[in-house]
Write a structure and sequence with these properties.
The complex is a heterodimer of chains A (394) and B (323). Chain A has 394 residues and is mainly alpha-helical. Chain A is built from 16 helices and five strands. In chain A, strands 3-4-5 form a three-stranded antiparallel beta sheet, with no helix packed on it. Chain B folds into two domains: 77 residues; 237 residues, Orthogonal Bundle (MetI-like fold), CATH 1.10.3720. Classes of the chains: A mainly alpha (394), B mainly alpha (323).
């Protein structure tokens, strides 16, 4: 308790001093001429924020990029690109060894089959109006829309689950969590929209969002556990028909499910994030003017057509926001991996490498991994800033 | 089918009336499918947490002999696990009541201080004119998505050795070594910086949306920027402040990475998340306490979530882009 009291007292003192200083400086500025007032006042208001942003974010980010190009553990040995060439050439980071296996993987074949289904279905209704259309394929047709989206997911999953290395693993996380999370979120938003007691259902699905990733890891450990000394088997191993599998580490008595143990860690993230996707998309669906649907119904459209050709095109930008948000979250994933496998059993990700190398005191390698995350985030950052800037201008 | 087969016996007229209810019934059943699917998913989503709650209340022997569902054949509940986790954990682990207090000692300043700083900055960005305002604001937006990993190494170096700048062979001390490493202040100072871009963005959006007339009227009454900020903007911005406060508090409370890096050497100051993972990795000793410990760590977020859900959702929706 002592720690809390002393912290609170310190915070109150610090805030009073800072607040007092702020007030005094403002009163002092009031006494200056209008010209000086206009010049000084903005800096009084944004000054503290700028100091924190510079020390905590801007300068460190620049320094991290700088360190990634320096030699020696602490960056004392001059400029070099050895970390970049070394890490990118390292099989545990980025390996192309199994690239040939992609074409024969089951997921890839399923993906190709679905592409064919999607194209055939899309061609048949190409004449109908509404919805998106690419090269004469009607995406507003439910069959073709679903088939093509699932096909893209399947092919990407085939690629990233076959190629190994932490970068591929991170991208696999993005595809699974951003793709399936958004898809389930959309489905749940539609389902909940038609249901009574909608709020209760949404609340329960949304609840995992409040829980820490570490707490979620513990919750799911009790789902995935195998029966062993001092522990009972988890629910999934009760349902699972075959030999017991340690879903997190991928081991069982008959062999290994690696790298698909990654997928079971990703499931935890989906469990958490689906509620977010659902709430955002649901709000967007409710924002679509009902006149649009009414008009389509008068023209003879059924509910499925109204959804695919009227509602869905209206909420595309919201869906994109959800996808980009989940992508940023997932690229930094650390807690879940650390708390479940610690990065062992083929589950390592970039953020865990950042931590491990930092713990080893290898600051330059740690910085290089951090910049790799930044590089993957940059395209999303650009999209976000562009979107927000448009909003600010408006 | 039996209805249809039987229909001819009762005559042609009956077919129509018999068909009608069948069609309606099929439609009624089909119409319930989405709702049934929804509730099936809700159950599926709730089971893992529910299972952990039940497990946390079972005695050690019962936990080992079977999963939480065996509670129905072997009902016995106890609060012993909570008592042990809070006050008498196995050797070497910090009692969870202390970790709970440590979490508060990090999360409270980590929430209050960024709000205070961001309110002032948000007002300036929204209602003051100064050079570079537009570009600085875009910079703040960009910083929202920068991964925290980009700050870890330099902040670690800053906390344990200060900041130096070497120009032309001579070294200047930019910031002295303040020996903050492995103290709670290192964690919440970092959270303050990391939380600011989102706080400024959220509060700016809200404050910029306040009606212009309000400010002009206050101006005419002789109020200056500081007076307007203190007496008009802060009281009006309460909903936005509440939304961000809840988001940031949960973010800091649930954080693991930043505490792990800046505080993990200091066992007595470490928060719940670190203690929980320590208990996970030291499985074998105190395993039976793990579910109870997990619930101790998520009870505050759950209470906030269920009692302040409206603000929570608002903050979360607006703040989902945080780096």
């Amino acid at each position: 308790m002592g720690a809390l009291v002393s912290t609170v007292v310190n915070v109150v003192i610090a805030l009073s001093v800072a607040g007092g200083l702020f007030v005094v400086l403002n009163l002092a500025t009031n006494r200056t001429s209008q010209r000086w007032d206009d010049r000084l006042r903005p800096w009084l208001f944004i000054g503290p924020a700028l100091v924190f942003l510079m020390i905590g974010l801007v300068v460190p980010a620049v320094r991290t990029v700088f360190l990634s190009f320096r030699g020696g553990d602490r960056g004392d040995d001059g400029f070099t690109a050895e970390h970049w060439t070394g890490l990118l050439g390292n099989d545990s980071v980025l390996s192309f060894d199994r690239a040939g296996d992609i074409l024969t993987s089951r997921l890839f074949l399923v993906g190709v089959a679905l592409v064919v289904v999607g194209i055939v279905a899309g061609r048949r209704t190409a004449g109908e109006g509404g919805g998106g259309r690419i090269r004469g394929i009607d995406l507003g047709n439910p069959v073709s829309g679903v088939a093509l989206s699932v096909a893209v997911l399947a092919v990407l999953m085939a690629v990233f689950s076959t190629l190994r290395g932490v970068i591929w693993n991170n991208l696999w996380w993005v595809v699974v969590v951003a793709g399936l999370g958004t898809g389930f979120g959309l489905a749940l938003a539609v389902l909940a929209d038609r249901s009574r007691r909608e709020t209760i259902a949404k609340t329960l699905i949304f609840m995992p969002m409040a829980i820490s990733l570490v707490g979620a890891a513990v919750i799911w450990q009790f789902v995935y556990d195998t029966r062993g000394a001092g522990q009972a088997e988890g629910l999934l191993n009760i349902i699972w028909p075959g030999d017991q599998i340690d879903f997190l580490r991928g081991t069982s008595s008959t062999g290994s499910i690696a790298p698909w143990n990654n997928f079971f860690i990703m499931v935890i993230m989906i469990w958490i994030q689906v509620g977010f996707a659902m709430v955002v998309i649901s709000a967007a669906i409710k924002g679509v003017p009902s006149e649009l649907g009414e008009a389509a119904r008068v023209d003879g459209a059924n509910e499925v057509q109204v959804f695919w050709r009227v509602t869905l095109p209206q909420i595309t930008s919201t869906i994109l926001v959800v996808v980009t948000t989940l992508t940023i979250t997932v690229l930094k994933v650390f807690d879940l991996v650390k708390a479940t496998t610690g990065g062992a059993a083929d589950t390592d990700v970039l953020a865990n490498r950042v931590y491990d190398t930092l713990q080893d005191g290898n600051f330059t390698t740690s910085s290089t991994y951090a910049v790799m995350i930044l590089v993957l985030v940059l395209p999303i950052m650009y999209l976000n800033v562009r979107r927000n800037r448009d909003e600010v201008r408006r | 089918m039996s209805t249809l087969d039987a229909a001819p016996a009762t005559g042609g007229a009956a077919i129509g009336s018999a068909m009608e209810p069948v069609g309606q019934r099929t439609h009624r059943v089909l119409a319930k499918v989405p709702t049934a699917v929804l509730w099936a998913i809700v159950v599926l989503w709730t089971i893992p947490s529910f299972g952990l709650l039940v497990t946390s209340l079972r005695p050690e022997a019962d936990q080992i002999s079977g999963g939480w569902w065996t509670i129905f054949s072997n009902p016995s509940l106890t609060l012993e696990n909570y008592d042990n986790a809070l006050f008498h954990p196995p050797g070497g682990t910090l009692p969870f009541i202390d970790a709970f207090v440590n979490s508060l000692a990090i999360a409270i300043p980590g929430t209050v201080i960024p709000i205070a700083i961001a309110c002032a900055a948000a007002y300036a960005f929204a209602w003051m004119d100064f050079r570079g305002r537009h570009w600085m604001f875009i910079g703040v937006l960009a910083m929202m998505a920068v991964p925290v990993q980009m700050s870890l190494v330099p902040l670690q170096q800053l906390y344990s050795g200060g900041a130096h700048l070497t120009v032309g062979g001579s070294t200047f001390i930019v910031l002295p070594d303040m020996d903050l490493s492995n103290k709670p202040i290192a964690v919440w100072l970092a959270h303050t910086a990391f939380g600011l871009p989102l706080a400024i963005y959220l509060l700016h959006n809200y404050i910029a949306g306040l009606p212009r007339d309000l400010f002009e009227a206050a101006r005419i009454d002789g109020a200056n920027h500081f007076g307007i900020f203190w007496r008009i903007v802060l009281p009006l911005a309460k909903p936005a402040i509440a939304a961000f406060a809840i988001f940031q508090f949960l973010w800091v409370w649930n954080d693991y990475l930043i505490s792990l890096i800046f505080l993990s050497q200091n066992r007595d100051a470490s928060p719940l998340t670190i203690q929980l993972v320590n208990l996970v990795t030291s499985r074998g000793q105190g395993t039976e306490l793990l579910p109870a410990a997990a619930f101790i760590s998520i009870v505050v977020p759950l209470v906030i979530f269920f009692s302040l859900q409206r603000y929570f959702v608002r903050g979360l929706l607006a703040g989902s882009v945080k780096g």
